[in-house]
Structures are given as structure tokens and as C-alpha cells.
Amino acid sequence: MHPNQVVRVLANYRRSKMIANEQRDQSKVAELSSLAVAKGFNDTGPLPAQTLPLRKWKISGNEN
Predict the structure, then answer these.
(1) Which residues contact 36 (CB under 8 A, 6 or more apart)?
(2) Tens digits of per-residue pLDDT, 17-44?
(3) How far is CA 16 from the centre of its chain?
(4) Contact, 49 vs 37, CB < 8 A?
(5) What phi, psi does 5 have (nearest 5°)?
(6) Exposed (0-12), middle (13-18) or buried (19+): which is 41, by Cβ within 10 Å?
(7) What pLDDT does 15 receive?
(8) Alpha-carbon distance 41 to 34, whole Å?
(9) What is the DSSP string of the chain?
(10) Measured distance CA(22)–CA(30) in Å, rounded
(11) CB of 13 closer than 8 Å to CB of 4
């Protein structure tokens, strides 16, 4: 196989993988947002606690 062919095959593989991941993510987002709507959360309303980042807020200048 010619080196250029290898590069092309890899690029096509990566592209199809990326598209598949994007479609999977979009269906996941759709699933989660419909779940959120079913639970009564809307785009402007409060977020469920689970979606908030689980980290302690650091006070600036006191990271250590």
C-alpha cells in the first residue's frame, strides 16, 4: 500500500469515527434534554443538582 493511501485511509477512518461520536453525543443530548423536560426542567429553569460541577470553589489567591 502506498504511504498516501495509508494517510487517506486513516483520515477517512478518523472522520467516520468523529461523525459517529458526534451523532452519538447528539442523541445522548436529545435523550437527556427530553428526560429533563419530562422531569419539569426547561432551558431557562434551574438545573438539577447533578449537572453542577462537583468541586469545591477555590478562593482566588488561596489555591494551595
Answers:
(1) 42, 48
(2) 999 999 898 888 888 888 877 776 655 5
(3) 17
(4) no
(5) -65, -40
(6) middle
(7) 92
(8) 9
(9) --HHHHHHHHHHHHHHHHHHHHHHHHHHHHHHHHHHHHTT--SSSPPPGGGS--SPPPPTT---
(10) 12
(11) no
Query: Is-contact 16 24, C-beta < 8 A?
Result: no
Confidence of residue 64 (pLDDT cuts 50, 70, 90): very low
Q: Are 48 and 40 in contact (CB under 8 A)?
A: no
Q: Tell me the C-alpha to C-alpha distance, in Å, between residue 13 and each of 1, 3, 4, 21, 30.
A: 16, 15, 14, 12, 26
Angle at 8 between CA 5 and CA 9, to 5 degrees: 85
